[in-house]
What does this fold into?
Amino acid sequence: MLLNIGPAHPAMHGIIRIVARLDGEQIVDADVDIGYLHRGFEKMSETVDYNGVIPYTDRLNYVSPLINNVGYCMAVEKLLCISVPERCHYIRVIVSEISRITDHLTCVGASAMELGAFTVFLYMIKAREYLWELVESVTGARLTVSYCRVGGVKGDLPEEFAEQCRKAFEETRRVLAESDALLTRNRIFVDRMSGTGKISADDAISYGITGPFLRASGVPYDVRKDCPYASYDRLEFDVPVGTRGDNFDRYLVRMEEMQQSMRIVEQALREMPPGPFQISPQTGRPLPASEMVDEAKVGNIPAIRDAYAVTDPTLDGAAKSQHASIATGEKRVFLPPKEDTYGNIEGLMQHFKLVMYGHGARPPKGEVYFAVEGANGELGFYVVSDGGNTPYRVRVRPPCFAIMSALPKLVVGDMMADLTPTFGSINMIGGELDR
Amino acid sequence: MSDDAGFLTSRLDEAIGWARKYSIFQYPFVTACCGMEYMATACSHYDIDRFGAGLPRFSPRQADVLFVVGTISQKMAPVLKRIYDQMAEPKWVVSFGVCTCTGGFYDNYATLMGIDTIIPVDVYIPGCPPRPEYVLDGLLKLQAKIQAQHESGQRPAPEPRPELEPEPWMPPR
Amino acid sequence: MDAAALIQALTERFPNAVRSSHAYRGDATIVVSREALLDLARALKDDAAFQMNFLMDLTAVDFSTFGKKPSPAFFASSGVAVRPSAELPDEHPWPGPPEVPNAAAALGAPPVPARFVVVYHFFSLPLKHRLRVEVPLEEADAELDSVTALWAGANWLEREVWDMFGIRFRGHPNLKRILMYDQFVGHPLRKDYPVNRRQPLIKTNGDVSSH
It folds into this structure.
């Protein structure tokens, strides 16, 4: 019997079409049809400048947008061969790990819901809300954040971040403990998840699978440990590795990874080099930006020399005193602080030459590949530049593309009902799969 | 006598409208990032269930509101049209997220620039993705529309899309 | 092995296949000829010196408008263009887009840049090194051997390259479109495909492609 599943189907993961050939209840063959969310990321990124690609990267793996931002920005920084301040590395690690936690919460919550555990879904989305509030206080948006820039991040962490983070993690730990109590020794959950969707380590490597999926099959490959970037080599954390390669091991690996991510963030908050707001409050007297511009226009420079521009709240964390800790020193790539934009002509020119249409940072001609550990596996960016202001080619190596290509191998031999937990544990994100 | 008939039918309309608006069976046609905010609106923090719209029916035959959530690509457009056609009257369509309203910033070969090019839309909720508060606002507007709708299920004709002439200030591609 | 040692080992092993190599920004890259790809890939996977068990990525680049797009901006060509400074470390300069040997090379004509370049990214988990292999192809003859027999993940990756660029893979079990629909005409990521040329499957009304 031929059964067509999708593209509009109840599983909450994404639109995909699986044509399954069944023999009774057993799946004999499965053909996977993707591309229903193809939005032309790679073509669009050839039409905007390097920083303009960042909103498109948010929408790739939209449950962990900050990891995509960090990956792309670090790839372009490798191409430009510029370095960012130490504090900026730590900030990127912190937001990446928070994104990883939200991704795993969504994945485990949605797959639990598909198996009938609706309560666990509600608990995990509640925890995700706390983390999104945390992300919103840093970046200004809950989901599509566009936080990183080529050469740094948009703004520094807010003052009360450590306290907010502590509270959010307390809630998250409570939710994880509750979900663990509800699922891990639950007879129905264990029966449905164990033994289904098995893949051996060799097969997984042959398909190019990475991330929690591969680690559940027993291969300890994690880009953060094996090819470390940002400040991961200075942080201590464990990478959970499974044994059997079935859905239950993937669930356990993801639950443990969330705990490890929280450990990384707490460590990073302790070890981060202090930002200027922790040393002293803003060193200038506050002056609304519009007044500063007016004073600069009439040439009254002495009046604004020691002033601190009070701008829109969306620009919090990007003031002149904090600029050195979030931005690279390379002026031709990163925007100046607003005090310089409004206050002197060099800043104005720098700002103009970076934001106006057709201008922008111009990396040298070349190509780079840079990989970060996405929530699903190795997220690689291959950027080719021809010396112009728009990228010549941006290729994103999507981790769940490899996993989905192995779906026929995962489900053949299992029952029809095992398709649901397997598909759930793949964590297929349409934005990343189809780009 | 005709006044009495008018009074009764209008009271009946109101009652039916009231019952309909608080018992929305939605079909969440979730494709992309907006789905995350849809999940957030449906869950405990923002709770769409208090408006009676918390029960997703995953079959178009059983649903009356089609929430189109997330970008619709050209490949997906025939599927959306078929799902819309399969729904029984009275039905309403909510366009959730700017990709479904006008196409968002994905102005390329792969995307449908707004679902109102293929199906009529009742409420547009822009945002990329819209905050849950906007979604609830859109839902309240939809409820007002349902309440005011004639008992026969006829909806006013959809407004035609304005033609966009290229303006001199628009950058060339 | 680090990038230089890897390139050295590969150039010694396949002197005829490897046309050029570089290690721009530390990424070991070799440009190989199309005929030698399958043997090279087999050796990369099986040899104890390389052990490239991961085919991380398989993609293509269309170099037809490389460096040719003029900037539409006002004063873009002025000397104060925002380019990173000339003092950037550049021990391994980038040699430019890969070239195909020109039929007229015997007469002394310079090699032409290839239109398509298929790019493979390999990673070795035991030895923790990465390699990029580039295969330049001409437009008229955009065909290549498939490596699906060696890495199962190449199946979908090659289908995507076919879909987006129109490069055929000989020996691929199922070469059909993967991201676009079958009725789509053309290959979208080619530089001559305009970004907003739509081919709707069903009739739409008022679908204006805005600017």
